[in-house]
Amino acid sequence: MTIADILKVIKIREKQPTLRYIIFSYRILLALFSWTVLGIMFYRSVIRQSDIAAGILAGISSYRYYTMQTNLFVALWYSFAVFFQFKPELLNKIRGGLKGALALYITITFIVFAVMLSESYQPTGIDSFTNISSHYIVPILFIVDWFLAEWDVKYRWLYLAFWVIYPLCYLIFAVLHGNYISSGNYLYPFLNLQNLGWVKFIISVLVLVVVFLSLGSLYIGMNRIIRLIMTKKQQENNENKTMVGDIEQSEEREEDH
């Protein structure tokens, strides 16, 4: 056996804590962080109103916004992931297509705000913290989680057909909200049909669709590339583990003698 082989054995034996436990700890922290941010935002909505009832309604009403909905989805996902961490059969049910969808939705939250809304909305104080957290920190940390732990699930191109359902439903809701529910109070300026007119509105929607489909395709493509790379590394690790087993058996035989 060469020195290189011995060093490989040592590295395998020293791989504690494993990536699994690191990810588990990471998700606990992010679940707590996500719920804290949502809690602060809800509380801020409540205290801006004259009475508690109106404040609670305002807090609930804030979930009309895409940002609030996607951050809630992420917080819920983290919570389930923590509870299911050591139950693979349950954890696998919220991975793959579902996690890919949430990664895509929260990425849209990040990109749309950074490109189209950040200059027009710059709060101060605690609102600045929740704004940065919900639009930047939570999305980026969820994307990191996706890169770390989603490579062993094979994504299918058919996922795009399912992923597009929620954004289309939200688009319809946003238009109905601005036209009928709230009398011209559109949730986002780039969906303001009255100000934009039909031509600019259709262009705005088409741009969003192209961005969405491009990002969705990118996630699927990256999943397949990362999966290929990590599968090769896993095969190498399995070979090394086999070598470790052989060495341990050899050591046991020597001890017996």
Description of the molecule:
This protein has 257 residues and is mostly helical. The chain has one domain. The protein is built from ten helices and no strands. The protein has helices at 3-13, 19-47, 52-61, 66-84, 88-91, 97-117, 126-149, 159-163, 165-181, 193-256. Helix 1 (3-13) packs across helix 10 and helix 2 runs antiparallel to helix 4 (66-84). The protein starts with a helix and ends with a helix. Residues 6-16 have low confidence and may be disordered.
Q: Which word captures the global form? A: globular
Overall residue-averaged pLDDT value: 86
Q: Give a quick account of the main beta sheet: strands, pairing sense, barrel closure.
A: none
Care to count the β-strands?
0
Number of helices: 10
Distance between the termini: 20 Å
Beta-strand content estimate: under 5%
Could you state the order of secondary-structure elements as H and E?
HHHHHHHHHH
Low-confidence stretches: 6-16
Structural class call reads mainly alpha
- Radius of gyration based on Cα positions: 24 Å
